[in-house]
Amino acid sequence: MNTRFLLATCTLSFLFSCGAKRKSTEIESAHKPTIAVVNYPLAYFAERLAGEFATIIFDAPSDLDPAFWEPTDEQIVRMQQADLILLNGANYAQWAATASLPFESTVDTSSSFEKSFITIESAIKHTHLKEGAEHSHGGTAFTTWMDFRQAGMQATTIATAIGADFPDQKDAVMKNLAALLTDLKELHTVTAKVVSNLNHAPVIASHPSYQYWERAYRLEILSLLWDSEMELGTEAIADLKKVQEANPGVKYFIWDSEPLPAHLEKLKTMGLTCVVVSSCSNRPASGDFLSVMRANIEALAKLSPERS
Amino acid sequence: MLTVNEIVFSYPRSSFGLRIDHFACSPGSATAIVGPSGCGKTTFLNLAAGILQPQEGRIQLDGTVVSMLGASASATHRLSHIGLIFQEFELVEHLTVRENILLPRLLGLQTDPDALEKRARKLAEETGIGPYWNTRPDNLSHGERQRVAICRALSINPRIVLADEPTGNLDPTNKRMVLDLMVNFAKVANRTLVVATHDLALLEAFDEVVQFENLNQFAPDPS
Amino acid sequence: MRAGGIAYLSWKHLSYRPLRTLTLVAAIALTIYLPLALYVFTSESTRILQERARSTPLLLGPKGSSLDLTLNALYFTSQELPSLKHLAYTKLAKERFGTTIPIHARFHAKEAPIIGTSLAYFDARTLPVAEGRMITRLGDCVIGARLARRNDLHPGDRITSSPENVFDLAGVYPLRMRITGILAANHTPDDDAVFADLKTTWVIEGLAHGHQDLANPTAADAVRKREGNSIQANASVVEFNEVTENNIASFHFHGDPEHYPLSSVILIPKDKKSRALALGAYQGPSSSGQLVIPLDAVTQLTETLFATSKMTFAAFLLLGLTAFALAALVFLLSFRLREREMQTYAKIGARTASLVMLKSTEVAIVLISGIVLALLSAAITKSFSAGLLPQLLN
């Protein structure tokens, strides 16, 4: 909660003091604007909105979930020098709470819907004798963009910030925003339709990263803590069986990325059909955010006929 | 050659007056002026040096009529041509022996500085004060100080040396040495030496002895 | 008499009595220096104060003395001022008047003030990093050029915050900070300060901290009570006194950040209209803080400074006249004592004009030496004014 507040403060500072952005406006013509981001969806939105005139900095290694990426000091310095720093908010990239980022340039893209954040109940909370107040070291779901309406709000916040920072580009950015929002709206509509075909039956997910998707598209997701490349040992299988026993009708297993063929076989023997629904938090090997989300929808669409 | 003719001098608001009808001494000669205290010996030397100007009469040193010179010209003439030696040595305490001897140059004597320094150094060696070249006078004995004063007077190779009781503060040995130095200079350099003294024991060293009597004095007219 | 000879004779006499000469030179130098230094210091202080005040157009702080507030924000003086809530900063930022820069100037590392602020401060004060790099995270700091030079500190070294007093060991958290860079000198109090992220000063304040993971079995001794997902720690929990790459994730904030303290907020309005609106918004008794114009506050101070210095200047002038009269007397007595020496010069052949020149040269050497010494001292005073001023203000 406190971290969120700090990030929200950063955003407020930016939004309400953009008139004083002398540095960027003065040297706008001298150098290409830079926009630093903390995950791929934000990078995609920024590219769609300002890719024609700005360089997007996204330094997270391709083999790492950007949510748990810890940028080096040099990478933070690079971000400090950016004209805009786009944070996801919702406790995403927790390093940002302890990093020194320029208030005026930092934008919390999810601040407009922070009241709708999902708190993960299982996060451990504790108190200290001195303060007495209870707090937690985490506990907010952060894959906000998986609800495409929220993704649209994030894109709108980004567009507003870019427009305020680069007034000359405002019209072009707003035009790009309209196109992006149309794509996101389509994703939302189609996803809602495809998922509704599952009749809101519970599904199992390899990882607890679908909270907003689950809420937006009225699914019931039972999350494990599996990795697509991990070895499915006795303990992992026991966990899965426990979930199956508690939810006898569960038929589908959602992976965040393509699992090993052996996993597919193993789960098939356990009566589960696998499907990949990628949150696309890092840059995909091919395609882009839109194509990955469409692939997710296609994969889900294939499930529906089988079920019906 | 120093010639003095019919000079009359009196100090302002004083009862003392000096009148000399004629006085002359030639180059290479050593002349002693003797007489009781207050008979006008020092006044005469000051007149001869141009420090005082007579009210009447004429004082001439070689071709220069000293008594006709203005204060400034007289000072310049004195600096270049007259060597003065005093009873109290009149050395400058904050200057070294070298600087005291070269004082005329510091005071504006127009001469070749190297030649002057060479001559001063030679004189110092000859008079036995060479070892004290960079010493201040307060570290020297009376005899040594007077030798420094003599070196200062002789260093400019003056036409005339005027000495006022130069041996008055010295012991017999030093008296002799100092006197020999001055007389020797007059002889060797063919210069005129005039010494005012009341030490009768030294008179034999001089070519001529002039007795200043009270007769030379007169009471000036108060008007 | 030759000019060289006169100068030489004068110098020889002056150096023969060095104590007398030096006393005279010192007396004259001091007589000139004191009023001059007062003037130089007053003017330079005024210039420095006004220059820094000009680069701080508006300042939001707690109600009270506007001068104390200004001096605390501009010179990091350690006046005990009530703190401003962080909420005041966010409220001001919301108003969109311009760039807002928080200042939290409460703590020290040895003698150096620790300033919690944002990166915008360095832009506003034109303070680039000369060596190393800018702060990047909690526990980082950049330090002023003079502080670095004085303590031989370099990027990579550590500097520890000091407890506010010896009996307050638990209150203010001694934090070992990583020096990431040395700032370029700008000849202001910035050169003597430690700059950290605002959040770092809140760690020092004890509002944020990092400690061992209480869910970890190794921390069992530190757990007082465990109820479901809630763990209550006892006093033995190991808190980190330095932020490192390994423990940074454990650092977290407690309480309501809106109530976190600040000393003041610098507001650089984006235009005249915003400035007027900002001033209007903080007028009246209902406003939570005061928005002051540092230049006005500083002008009040400098006017007082000038009024005081005028009186002192008059006193120095009288003292100076007395000192010059005494110096003249010393010279007259000295020349009287040297009458015989002068007569000797005259007898040997020095002209009267030369003797006058000799005496004048001696007086001139002493006077000029005194004046030069006074001017040099005044120039040194001027160069030290920038460093001296904050010390005097404290």
Quick summary of this structure?
Chain B is 34% helix and 22% strand. By secondary structure, chain B is of the alpha/beta class. Chain B has one domain (2-215): Rossmann fold, CATH 3.40.50.
Written description of the protein model:
The complex is a heterotrimer of chains A (308), B (223) and C (394). Chain A has two domains: 30-184, Rossmann fold (3-Layer(aba) Sandwich); 189-307, Rossmann fold. Chain A has helices at residues 2-15, 22-26, 40-50, 73-80, 95-98, 148-165, 170-196, 211-216, 234-246, 261-269, 289-307; strands at 34-37, 55-57, 84-87, 106-108, 125-128, 134-136, 202-205, 220-223, 252-255, 273-276. The model of chain A is unreliable at 1-29 and 123-138 (pLDDT under 50). Chain A contains eleven helices and ten strands. The radius of gyration of chain A is 21 Å and the shape is globular. By secondary structure, chain B is of the alpha/beta class. In chain B, 34% of the residues lie in helices and 22% in strands. Chain B is built from seven helices and nine strands, in the order βββαββαβααααβαββ. Chain B has a five-stranded parallel sheet with strand order 6-7-8-3-9, sandwiched between helices. In chain B, strands 2-1-4-5 form a four-stranded antiparallel sheet, covered by helices on one side. Chain C has 394 residues and is of the alpha+beta class. The radius of gyration of chain C is 31 Å and the shape is elongated. At the A-C interface, helix 1, helix 4 and strand 5 of A face helix 4, strand 3, strand 12 and strand 13 of C.
List the SSEs and their pairings.
The complex is a heterotrimer of chains A (308), B (223) and C (394).
Chain A: H1 2-15, H2 22-26, E1 34-37, H3 40-50, E2 55-57, H4 73-80, E3 84-87, H5 95-98, E4 106-108, E5 125-128, E6 134-136, H6 148-165, H7 170-196, E7 202-205, H8 211-216, E8 220-223, H9 234-246, E9 252-255, H10 261-269, E10 273-276, H11 289-307
Parallel strand pairs in A: 1-2, 1-3, 3-4, 7-8, 7-9, 9-10
Antiparallel strand pairs in A: 5-6
Chain B: E1 2-10, E2 17-25, E3 30-34, H1 41-49, E4 56-61, E5 64-65, H2 71-81, E6 82-85, H3 97-101, H4 103-106, H5 113-126, H6 142-155, E7 160-164, H7 172-189, E8 192-196, E9 208-211
Parallel strand pairs in B: 3-8, 3-9, 6-7, 7-8
Antiparallel strand pairs in B: 1-2, 1-4, 4-5
Chain C: H1 3-16, H2 18-54, E1 58-61, H3 66-75, E2 84-85, H4 86-94, E3 98-109, E4 112-117, H5 120-124, E5 129-132, E6 140-143, H6 145-151, E7 158-160, E8 176-183, E9 194-197, H7 198-205, E10 208-209, E11 223-227, E12 230-233, E13 252-253, E14 261-262, E15 264-269, H8 272-281, E16 290-292, H9 294-337, H10 339-348, H11 352-393
Parallel strand pairs in C: 4-9, 6-8
Antiparallel strand pairs in C: 1-15, 1-16, 2-14, 3-4, 3-15, 5-8, 6-9, 7-8, 10-13, 11-12
